[in-house]
Every structure is written in structure tokens, then in C-alpha cells.
Amino acid sequence: MPNVTRATKPAPGLPPCLPPFLPFTDRPERGGAAIPGRPSRHLRGSEIYAEGSAIRQLYRVVSGAVRVCRMLPDGRRFIAQFALPGEVFGLDGVEEHRFSAEAVTEAVLIAFARRDLEACLDREPLAAQSWQAYTLEKLAAAQDRFILLGCRSATERVAHFLLDLAARARPGREGLALPMSRYDMADYLGLTAETVSRTLTLLRKAGMIAIEDNHRLHLLDTGRLMQAAEPGRAAA
Amino acid sequence: MPNVTRATKPAPGLPPCLPPFLPFTDRPERGGAAIPGRPSRHLRGSEIYAEGSAIRQLYRVVSGAVRVCRMLPDGRRFIAQFALPGEVFGLDGVEEHRFSAEAVTEAVLIAFARRDLEACLDREPLAAQSWQAYTLEKLAAAQDRFILLGCRSATERVAHFLLDLAARARPGREGLALPMSRYDMADYLGLTAETVSRTLTLLRKAGMIAIEDNHRLHLLDTGRLMQAAEPGRAAA
DNA sequence: GGCTCCCGCTGATCCGCGTCAGGGCGCGCC
DNA sequence: GGCGCGCCCTGACGCGGATCAGCGGGAGCC
User: Fold this and answer.
1) Does the global pTM surpass 0.70?
2) CATH code assigned at A182
3) Which residues on A lie below 8 Å from B147 (Cβ)?
4) Do the Cβ atoms of B22 and B120 come closer than 8 Å?
5) Residues B178 and B73 in one domain
């Protein structure tokens, strides 16, 4: 794949506006400057970077999905983030990666050099502002996340996760894609795979979702799902 | 930045290097520019800012302690952060506060205008770099936090909390100050006050801590405490 | 085809922590 | 002093989710 900075020819599956933007913005409509990117392809399950390695690049997902995770000393695994098409990952520490990243499915990424980003931030005041807003948003999301993990039931967590995925999904095929396994979902939500499975069955029996197959489902009643995700809040 | 290294007149109770620093750095040794600050005093339990209000200032704690929290729709409360002397809080959203802040004890703060910070970041490349590292660190801390909340037992959470407090405490009086109530600790750790109380008793009976009174205790065996905080990890 | 392996689902059991209840202590107020 | 209230501790009990176990289906490989 030739370089992507001039978006004369958009990569397959990406909106034409994407490549010349700041690599960190998940939402390209915000604007930004050109940073050269290098595409790469990763097999399902392969490691993209290791915990403890130096942070030299960040990545935007073109297709596929990526999990950012850490093995805990007791052998458990915790997933900090799923990166979906259009989203960015890789800045999970100051100097060194504090997590590892692995391809959940076969994935195509675009890698950006960190120093190019930093040079761009120094050069472009607008980019720096955008960066600032981006990090604040990420922090806010992290805070919401630990409210979820701190005091929510299994049903609330799973419902919340599905709604979140649906909100982030690119408009595309009918239904909601779940690229990751039940184990991945469990390690992301602080549950076990058994509980995730049981909860999905529960939501299905309650008529809120329909399960097409292991990696695709349909949200039938988002109103009740939202209520399941946050009891005490009015449904939209 | 005629700057930080020369600190002419320290505020009472603060290390001499503190006031003229970038307000956001928890660690002033990192350097930064002078931003004017305005001191204020808050009674125990009083609100410093409300959820949903515009973010116009950020705050550094001079003395006392502050909790940054949110009421959940189901009536529960969640505490996102305790700010101790020398630490900074108030940037908990992009435009609006997504949490409220309350004084845990009587507290003296220094407030900084957000626009002064932003002007400083635009003006001083060094300050902007420092800001960037600061936000990345905060993000990293948030990620560690949701690992803690996602898959840790009550004992691990409490032990971790005590060690964290000890690491952040200013060298001062003998023993470890716990300015907050058991309820505050519970809402921070995603537990109940009963469980916090029971767990402290457990650690005391195991000889890892000694409880002087409700708001002060002593860490007797940090090695075993660390092991209790992260099983499977060698004690230091 | 037949085997193995991984993944997902479901049932039975266990246990940690939430919940409920009661009692003690310190502090402020009448 | 006496009282009420907030905070803390402790015990009894129940529930939700982890754990353990078993089963079925699909993919890859021989």
C-alpha cells in the first residue's frame, strides 16, 4: 500500500476525508494537519506491540479490531480498550507502553510516528488544541469507565457495552458486529465468560437483543437496553 | 518563563518551590511558568464546584482534602479522586465539570483560571510538553484504576488504597492520615463502608497495620501489604 | 471421515461482599 | 447533663457472580 498522506485515493473502507488528518482524533471532522502514516497488516491474535516497549508509534485502525490489554501477576488478563475501525490506540503510557496490543481479528492499521505527532503539535496551535480536547475526552471516558467497573451489575455492564459498541460502529452492515470473543468481552468488563454468555442469553430472552451468530447481534429495543444499562434513568 | 527555579516567597505550609509553578503539575520539580492563583478556604462538606457547571478554574490543594465525586441516577455516589495537599483537581471534563467537588475536611485551595493555563500552554512550549506528560500520566493512572476496580477483591483494594495514600502523603507527622470517612473510602473503592471497616480490621489483626484512631493509622509491614495488594507479585 | 482444539452455552455449587440490624463512641446542641 | 446524630464496628443472612463441570458445534488438520 502506498503512503496515505495525500488522500487522492482513500484506503478501501475508509471515508475519503480520513487520511490527511491528525492521527489521534477519533473524529476526523474536527480537522487537523497531515502526518505521514505507514500501513500494516496483522494476523488474528498477533501482537502489535508489547508491554514495556518504547512508545514510538500510534495507530489508527483501518479494518478489523484490536485489543489493548495487560496480563496481571495472578495470571488474569485485563483489556483496557477495544479499538475499532477509525479509532486510535497506542498512547498508553508516557515513555513506555503500559499495555500490549493484539489483533482481535485480522487487522489493517496505519502507524504514525510519535515524533511526527509531537512536531505537528508544536507547529500547529490548532492541532495542539485538538490534542488537548482529545486527551480530556479520553480522561473523561476513563472516569466513566471506572464508574461502570466500580459499581455496576453484570447486566448493566453488558448492556452498556453493547450500546457503546453500537454508538461507535461505522454505519455499515445490518446488525452489530462483535469481533471479539466472549472471553475478550469478559476481560474488558471485569466479568467471566460464563457470566457474559448468561447475560446475553438473559437479554435475548427479555427480547432486547437478537443473536444472529457468535459475532453478530441485533439491538431490538434500545430503550429498554438503556434502562438496563443505567437503572433510574429515563429511557430515550 | 522566568521561572520556577527561583521561588522568592513560598506560601505558608508549602515547600518554597511551589507557588509560581504550572498549576497542573502535581510534581513541581518538573518546572513550569508562573500563573497567578487565588487562595480560598472551604468548610468541611461544602461544595467547591457542581457537576455540570462550566470549567473556569482548576485548583491546587494547599491543606485539607477534597473529594471529586458524582451522584449516580440510582442514588449511589462514586468518588473519582481524592485530592491531597500539593495535588491538583478540577479538569474533569472538556467544557463542563462532569463531577462535583467537595471539601472532605476544612480545606485551603489555590484556584487558577483555566484561560491563564491555556494561554501559558500556547506561550511556553516547555509548559505544553509538561502538560502533555501530565495528561498521559493521568490517563495511565485512570487505566490502573479500572484494573483495580474491575477485578480486585476488597482486601486488595483497601491495601492498594493505603499504599497509594502513603506514597502520596507529604512527609510530616508520624503515621498515615485518612482524612476521609469510611463511607468516602467505600465510594472510592467501589465497596460498602461495612466492608471497608471489616477489611481494615482484618489487616489490623493480621499485623499489617495499626489503627491509631478513625483518621490515622500506621503501616507496620508494607511488604506484606504490597503482597495483599497484588497477589502473585514479589514483595519489595 | 475422524480427530483435536477452541469457543460458546448451561447447570450446580460455592463464596465474597452487599444488605440488614444492632450497639458503642464522640460531638454538638438543647 | 441529657439527648440526638453521625460515624464506626460487628454479626447474621442472602444474593450475585465466580468456579467447576459437562455438552455441543465449527474450524483446522491428518
Assistant:
1) yes
2) 1.10.10.10
3) 70, 72, 78, 80
4) yes
5) no
Nearest to B149 among A137, A140, A150 (CB): A150
Give the C-alpha separation, A51 to A55, whole Å: 10
Q: The domain that contains B61 carries what CATH number?
A: 2.60.120.10
Q: Is the Cβ–Cβ distance between B82 and B180 less than 8 Å?
A: yes
Task: Give chain A positions within 8 Å (CB) of B150.
Answer: 78, 149, 189-190
**Cβ atoms of residues A59 and A112 within 8 Å:** yes
Instruction: Report the C-alpha gap between B166 and B82 in whole angstroms.
Output: 13
Mean pLDDT by 10 residues, chain A (236 residues): 35 33 50 73 94 95 95 90 94 93 94 89 80 87 88 94 94 88 96 97 96 94 93 59
Instruction: Give the side-chain half-sphere CA count within 13 A for A60.
Output: 26
Phi-psi region of B70 (alpha: psi -120 to 50; beta: other; left: phi over 0): beta
* B94 inside 8 A of chain A by CB: yes
pLDDT digits (tens, 9 = 90+) for B168-215: 998 877 889 999 999 999 999 999 999 999 999 999 999 999 999 999
Contact A132 B136 (CB under 8 A): no
Q: What share of chain A is helix, strand, coil (3-state, %, to 5)?
A: 35, 25, 40
